[in-house]
Amino acid sequence: MKVLMITPYLPYPLYSGGQIRSYNLIKNLAKSHEITLFAFVKEVVPDHIRALEKFCKKIEVFKRRKAWSVVNILVSGFSFYPFLVAIYYSLSLRRRIKEELFQNKYDLIHAETFYVMPNIPQTRVPILLVEQTIEYLVYAHFLETLSLKLFKPLLALDIFKLKFWEKFYWKRADKVVAMSASDKIKMRKLVPNLSVEIVPNGVDASFFSQVKQKSNKSPVLLFVGNFSWLQNREAVGFLIEKIWPNVKAKIQNAQLLIVGRNPSDGIKSLVRKFRVQMESKVDDIREAYSKSDVMIAPIFGPGGTRYKILEAMAASLPVITTEMGAEGLPVKHQEHILIANKQDMLIEQTIKLLKNEKLRIKISQNAKLLVQREFDWKKISSKLDKLYKSVGSA
Question: Is the pTM of this model over 0.85?
Fold first, then answer.
């Protein structure tokens, strides 16, 4: 099949969850489909484009507007489009998609995230819309935690617009893809009878199975996350201020390692204040997994399934997280993972896991088998391949 894929980022390098997902799906789907990729970029890096050329028939990139540019503020402020959609609304991309669909016969349009959808003109080509998260819920959670009351009405208005367009484009697509059963249920509550299927996030199980755990004299607690993402900023702040001092008081030789790109000044300040180790540039994330004993992910905001958790499970690193952090994963407490929601329970379970090697081994082995069985990219790609064939016009 001939597929036109539109993404809000170039799927290389593999810095974010979205890039990891799109890269692995393209790599596997290219074996049976001809993929043309139109992608937004912050800057054009030829080497990054070349890394994808072996999988795609053609690649075109389009400069994304800066979020806080005057144009973007005006578009979102004086139109019904929310801020996120305004960032990715591009007349040049819309013209190119129209030209491409006129000049070439495509069987399917794969739109990655609803906020690229305004760039797709009216067409008879079937559209498969993949939603990595329900965006308005992410920002609604942020609104609940926002302390600056002056900005709350503006953000509330933007969330209202975000919810409207998210639902609008779900209904426009021929099929919607969700990351988890919980996301599917939420979508159908908002849009009854919506045609939605589940294609979860995955992991390169063989790549992460190569991780060999190092023997540490002092137990190491690990947090991993890209700090461009709201939930990760919230989680790391909660971890460093609320959980870590209590863990350190009970296990005095314990260490905390924070690994993640794009840390804010606030996060850097917390790292200095509480004297924890931080690595913002890691060439191979497996190194962080190999030198850690436990992964902690105190996630409280909604949004898809978490790559950090799947990767840690595949690398035989035991995980403790919240119900929200484990949402969308078929895991059981004390079998594949430890789950706690309140501060005191997160502290208690973290100390328990750091001290109990037998429990760590049990959980890590069960989790690794689960990932290999259910979440390897080859299996995930096969699910998307079947959807391509059922939705596409070929």
Answer: yes
